[in-house]
Amino acid sequence: MTAEINQQSQTTKGADAVDEAIASGIDFDGSPIPPAKLELYHKVMGLEGNRQRSGVSNTMRSRIVRIGAKHIPQEELNQQLTDAGFAALKEKEIAFFYGGK
Question: Which InterPro entries match (predicted)?
Fold first, then answer.
């Protein structure tokens, strides 16, 4: 694998890859991200940045559910949540994240 291809695969993986692409204004395919999309994104993220948080544990759980549902079967994610001391999946989360599966 060439260094260029390796560099490309490294920059499209991981939690920071999207943030880095947004900061550079360049999508993973090398095309520029339209200014209107960047402006709206920054506006909404600014609003989110000013929102009062309910606690780290609640935010962690939300992220685990939102991202975990893409990778982990419902029963397994539910068990992992309860094993870790988080609340089990709620009916609305199951319907939203697993309803179409």
Answer: DUF4090 (IPR025149)
Q: Alpha helices of the chain — where are they, by DSSP H?
A: 3-11, 17-24, 35-49, 56-71, 74-83, 91-98
Q: What is the pLDDT of residues 67-95, one digit of tens each?
A: 999 999 999 999 999 999 999 999 999 99
Cα separation of 86 and 79, whole Å? 10
**b/e per residue 3-15 (b: at least 16 CB within 10 A):** eeeeeeeeeeeee
This prediction's pTM? 0.71
Residue reference for tokens 């709620």: 90
**CA-wise closest residue to 29 among 7, 6, 12, 10:** 12
Alpha carbon distance 50, 71 (integer Å)? 30
Q: What are residue 82's DSSP bridge partners?
A: none
